[in-house]
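Observation: inputs received (chain + adenosine-5'-diphosphate).
Thought: call the complex predictor directly.
Action: predict_structure
Action Input:
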Amino acid sequence: MKLMVKAPAKINLSLDVVGKRDDGYHDVKMIMTTIDLADRIELELLQEDKIVVTSHNRYVPDDQRNLAYQAAVILKEMFGIKQGAHIFITKNIPVAAGLAGGSSDAAAVLRGLNKLWNLNCSLDELAEIGSKIGSDVSFCVYGGTAIATGRGEKIQHIDTPPPCWVILAKPAQGVSTATVYQKLKLDDVKHPDVDKMVQAISEKDYDEICDSLGNVLESVTLQLHPEVAMIKEQMKRFGADAVLMSGSGPTVFGLVRHDSRMNRVYNGLKGFCDQVYAVRMLGEREKLD
Ligand SMILES: C[C@@](CO)(OP(=O)(O)O)[C@H](O)COP(=O)(O)OP(=O)(O)OC[C@H]1O[C@@H](n2ccc(N)nc2=O)[C@H](O)[C@@H]1O
Ligand SMILES: Nc1ncnc2c1ncn2[C@@H]1O[C@H](COP(=O)(O)OP(=O)(O)O)[C@@H](O)[C@H]1O
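Observation:
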């Protein structure tokens, strides 16, 4: 049996780190929303009792380091499944980019194998299982728009932002999330106003959303990768309404309301950066499989 599952990327409209924890993680308060840039996951059941991951992208591991592989193994062990699965990943989301590509692949595998193995888990149960794989997996199980707290695994769904274009530009080098959190000095950061962003979204106030964008990790990644600052500058210069780095970076996103402006920002950036995408904010919890 075969199943195709969609694994959309996320951006962080607001990302605050509120404290350091004893378990090596940080407590966060952030707003995440899905965009229509997605990996495609094809799942096929195997009679042989093994998990196989394949992808044509050389940056995607094909063994136990792959988060999608880990998702299949967790489900298999929890439910004593004696059947195997082949996971084929068509990678469209840039890797190590701050867009949760690996987490979304894992979440898609949880949703997909839940169906193929007839496990009847609710999304809440899958999100709980996903949190064991990575902090962003719980959000990716649901998609949509949400406030994430704890280490990112506590999800509260909120309204959908008003529609707009999201221009993404990913500098060549990837970023290690662990390194960025490690280098963060909580004493000298400017905390974004996450509640103001929640309010702006609920009022569908596009201008206020643009004014409220903020990411506490941005200054850390900017120091490690000065090209992120350059891309931010270019994006503003070409006319994006507001610009921010997503997650731990290095992808920069710009919000653009009007189609004509979108083309200008997209084409302008193409001259500076190989990986540029113009996508829509999905925002709403859609049926992902
Ligand atoms: C920064 C964010 C924002 O959405 O996304 P990305 O940039 O990775 O997309 C997330 O917090 C990333 O979540 P995720 O990528 O799932 O991280 P994990 O695999 O759980 O953790 C990787 C490492 O990051 C650090 N980490 C992660 C989450 C957190 N709340 N505090 C942390 O200190 C830990 O050192 C951990 O070992
Ligand atoms: N399915 C996957 N897709 C992409 N990267 C993966 C996957 N599984 C594990 N990884 C590893 O996870 C790391 C982070 O990748 P990714 O999830 O794309 O970035 P981010 O956490 O910044 O959103 C990569 O270095 C990669 O080796």
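Thought: report the result.
Final Answer: The radius of gyration is 19 Å. Residues 60-61, 65-68, 89, 95-103, 105, 177, 247-248 surround adenosine-5'-diphosphate (ligand 2) (CB under 6 Å).
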